[in-house]
Amino acid sequence: MTRVDLTAISKSFGSVKALDGIDLTVEDGENVAILGPSGSGKSTLLRVIAGLEEPDAGDVAFDGVSQSGIPPHKRDAAIVFQHFALYPHLSSLENITLGLRHGLGLPKKEAEQRAHEIAGRMQVEHLLGRKPKEMSGGQRQRIALARALARRSGIVLLDEPLSGLDAQLHAVLRLEIASLLRSVGATGINVTHDQLDAMAMADRIAVIHEGRIEQLGTPDELYAVPGTLFVASFIGSPPMNLLAVDADSGTCAFGRIGAPGPVTLGVRAEHLALGSVAAHPSAWSISGTVGLVEPTGKDRVVQLVTDEGLPIAFRCEITDTPVPGSRVTVVCDPASVHAYSPVTGLRLGDAVSEGIRVSEAAGVR
Ligand SMILES: Nc1ncnc2c1ncn2[C@@H]1O[C@H](COP(=O)(O)OP(=O)(O)OP(=O)(O)O)[C@@H](O)[C@H]1O
């Protein structure tokens, strides 16, 4: 097991700042996902940790030892790439043992023993004689993972290890990978743009945006209390409803807002419920017309379109699903409404603790 410390890592490509002052500690045996949209700097960060890319500034340390100047093959980190990168003319056994023999200098017999040991653990021994083209995508990815784990590195770096696999295999493999990393005790750093992968695999998630870490926390923390407007709009399906308060009129979909300063309000779909203010006097409400209705199997995600044309998602029971085109009101507890600064993008607190009020409800007819 190995602790990874990243300190003030920056990296530019010409005028593009791919990484902009990244600080992150991944503890021994911990599994952290680097989650962000395309182009946010995820792969560059992984490449810097692996030593495939030299940072312009900052330091990468494994167990407190700076890796500066240490080439990739001498670092205690194995990397699994997005596109398998298995040698097509070699069997799985040869793919796994090649790096052990030539990279780590193990004798053939010991390399083969290790390959069989990890393959047994991953239940892929029957694939050891096959070449990549004789295996499915999921099987190839398992072999690529076996190859990385056979090195017994303290750190395993995964670059979108599940992309290109179908949804079912995806769901199985991400749990398999997470439990394998735990069972071998490796420290895992996993790059992904898929929030469900990140949530399922990681102890903590670092959300990265434009080369900076926006928030670091457990999956539950990021979902319950998104620290920035970006995280609020990125984590969760559907994403949090964000309601900008108009600076001139002082209004948003909830009505006229009394607030100490400029604010953008956020509320999750499951915190909005069909109802009336008459029945919930302290609740805030939004009225509008029912648009798209999305079945999830368990419930419905319904889109309400306000009179200003703003779509607001809420959840309801299947038996309560309103008819598209009908007029409805949804209510919420103001304590479940998040308040963000539109200037800094940072979360201020919840609406109640921030002293935010609705002085005049909107959309009531
Ligand atoms: N070798 C390179 N030369 C020039 N620009 C690069 C290079 N590598 C990355 N970039 C740029 O740096 C930024 C971050 O790229 P990076 O590949 O790290 O993002 P990413 O989050 O992994 O994206 P994706 O999910 O699409 O792979 C992007 O704007 C990208 O175009």
Automatic annotation (TrEMBL):
Q: Which GO terms describe its molecular function?
A: ABC-type transporter activity; ATP binding; ATP hydrolysis activity
List, for all copies, the residue spans of the domain called ABC transporter: 4-235
Report the superkingdom from the record. Bacteria
GO cellular-component term (any): ATP-binding cassette (ABC) transporter complex, substrate-binding subunit-containing
Q: Does the keyword Nucleotide-binding apply?
A: yes
User: Which of UniProt's keywords are assigned here?
Assistant: ATP-binding, Nucleotide-binding, Transport
User: Could you tell me what this protein is called?
Assistant: Carbohydrate ABC transporter ATP-binding protein, CUT1 family
